[in-house]
């Protein structure tokens, strides 16, 4: 299980354009790696749009933003285009990265148990170590707390 101060698990996934993206491409930069459950749902859209709107502020902290969900490359492309997102969305249909980062969890809604993504954000420092983990993210104001953590 990933922990703050430890090396972030490596991964390689396809983005919304079908391009291969690997964590090691971003050595020397801060990485905001956020996990969300589904494209074009209310909470996930609000989270993506808040990162989009504050993107220039993230760039000032030398950070890249990567969103990861189990949705397909095609779904990510539609989501990116619909909301003019300005960062990569990575497709993890096999849920391998979701499991590496311990965000694929048993959930419970209205008494029904199912497997799903627990909304979580990792900040990975320029050396590839986990600087901060935000578990069970509440969308409102989350982009601001991530920015603050990058500045400290």
Architecture blueprint of SSEs:
Layout: E1 12-15, E2 20-22, E3 30-35, H1 42-53, H2 55-60, E4 63-69, H3 73-83, E5 88-91, H4 96-100, E6 104-109, E7 112-117, E8 120-124, E9 130-134, H5 142-151
Parallel strand pairs: 3-4, 4-5
Antiparallel strand pairs: 1-2, 1-5, 3-8, 6-7, 8-9
Number of helices in the DSSP assignment = 5
Average pLDDT, rounded to a whole number, is 95
What proportion strand?
25-35%
Radius of gyration: 14 Å
Strand order of the largest sheet: 2-1-5-4-3-8-9
How many strands, what sense, and barrel or not for the largest sheet?
A: 7 strands, mixed
Number of domains: 1
N-to-C CA distance: 24 Å
CATH topology: Glutaredoxin
The topology string of helices and strands comes to EEEHHEHEHEEEEH
CATH class: Alpha Beta
Structural class: alpha+beta
The CATH architecture would be: 3-Layer(aba) Sandwich
Shape: globular
Helix content: 25-40%
Detail the poorly predicted runs. none
Total beta-strand segments: 9
CATH superfamily: Glutaredoxin
């Amino acid at each position: 299980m990933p922990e703050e101060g430890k090396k972030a698990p490596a991964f390689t996934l396809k983005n919304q354009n079908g391009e291969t993206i690997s964590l090691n491409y971003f050595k020397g930069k801060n990485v905001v790696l956020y996990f969300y459950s589904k494209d074009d749902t209310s909470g996930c859209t609000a989270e993506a749009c808040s990162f989009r709107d504050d993107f220039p502020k993230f760039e000032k902290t030398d950070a890249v933003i990567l969103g990861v969900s189990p949705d397909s490359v095609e779904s990510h492309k539609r989501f990116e285009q619909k909301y003019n997102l300005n960062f990569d969305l990575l497709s993890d249909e096999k849920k391998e990265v979701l499991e590496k980062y311990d965000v694929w969890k048993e959930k419970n809604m209205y008494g029904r148990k199912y497997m799903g993504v627990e909304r979580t954000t990792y900040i990975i420092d320029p050396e590839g170590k986990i600087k901060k983990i935000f578990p069970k993210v509440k969308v409102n104001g989350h982009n601001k707390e991530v920015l603050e953590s990058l500045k400290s």
